Amino acid sequence: MRETSDGRFENSLSRRAAMQVGAIGAFGLSLEKLLASDAQALNQKSSGQSPKSCIFIHQYGGLSQLDSWDMKPAAPSEIRGPYQSIETATPGFQVCELMPRLAKISEKYAVIRSMTHHMSQHDKANSMLLAGRSKPAEDDPSFGAMVSKLSPSLESIPAHVWLQKYGGGSAPPEHTYLTGGRLGMAYAPMLIGESHTDNPASSDFRVRAFDTGDSVSLKRLEERWQLLQTLQSFPESKSSSAFESLDIYQQQSFDLLHSSDAKSAFDINQEKPSTRDRYGRNPLGQNLLLARRLIESGVRLVNVVAWTGLAAGEKFVSLETWDMHGNANVGIFENGWNGLPFALPRTDIAVAALLEDLSERGLLDSTLVVLIGEFGRTPVISKGAKRVGRDHWPQCYSAMVAGAGIQGGTVYGESDSRAAYVKSSPVTLEDFTATLFKAMNINPASRLSPNGFTIPASDGSPIAELL
């Protein structure tokens, strides 16, 4: 590197090499750790254990198991609710009539009817789901952070992306999902969707992560990056807290800013109008379409908050679509943003389109799709503050998993006659998360502590019947 007469810096290193060297010096990452990270992904490829990806859909607020995957048509009306069961393509397996698209393609997914834990508080239950632990530590990394650590992307694109930030009083602390926990900010997700208006269903949606700012040119940013490398090369500078506090995403910024492929992946406007219609012109549908684009481009894990948007004439209240107490001027069985007749058909269309699209593109075998809330809803319908609803219920609820070798057309576990308690094959958050790791060709016992010997990625046991 040399300084020119006009104060600029020149370097013969390629942009990719410069980024790698800069990452080592500027952010305190040792060469040993960098090479080990690359080796993890390369070893998976060479061993025949191909890296897999995941789209993790959060039904934020808690979907009613009784009105979706675990219908109880013989129960009294105050338990079964108003909806009818319909047959799926799998003999003996029925779902709610509000999910006809998913019913037709049941061979593509499995349903767990015996999820269980004991936390009925939203924020804590969401933190548990994110960490895959019944008693998560304050600094436990999320499932997405662990995946991006253990199965890093080899493309010039973030390994982990989060679509639609949690909002409302039910949200878990931001550090549980927008950082890498004890793994560090290198494994934090790239957040797209800061507010309810910032989503790809909005006419003015644009990903701003590639903006450089009006006052700083791309060329000048490159010069600053090269200067940072130079400063870090001096032994006396070492790794100061100032360098460590820099945004970790600068490690990727120059590759991203120069990568037309990365920019293209985030540009949902490149999709045909018919494809966008297929997913549904609402926040969840368009976020799932964007998630498919990202997975196709090399992102390892995409989290999507399943906010289905607003009905005509409604004002925004919260992203807690599935928290259907009947406290928000919309009853659980009413056609509004916080009601099943509005939210569940939109989810049915979007998730079915995602599974079909991934399958048609040859991606379903390598992409795990997860659909789950932090808990379920009470067996008995109750009167909320304003409307009829169901309250929080973690003792027994349902989840859907698909792709990545999951045995489609499978129903695992059984609830009692009211879908109140698990009757057989209980599934803890630990076992659920271990199953997800296994499906993604990641060893659940992989050690993630600083010493490399303690704290496995998961303490659970994978469910063999699903794999």
TrEMBL record:
| Top-level taxon of origin | Bacteria
| Coiled-coil regions listed in the entry | none
What's the short name of a Pfam family annotated to this entry? DUF1501
Q: Which InterPro entries does UniProt cross-reference here?
A: Alkaline_phosphatase_core_sf (IPR017850), DUF1501 (IPR010869), TAT_signal (IPR006311)
Q: This chain belongs to which protein, by name?
A: DUF1501 domain-containing protein
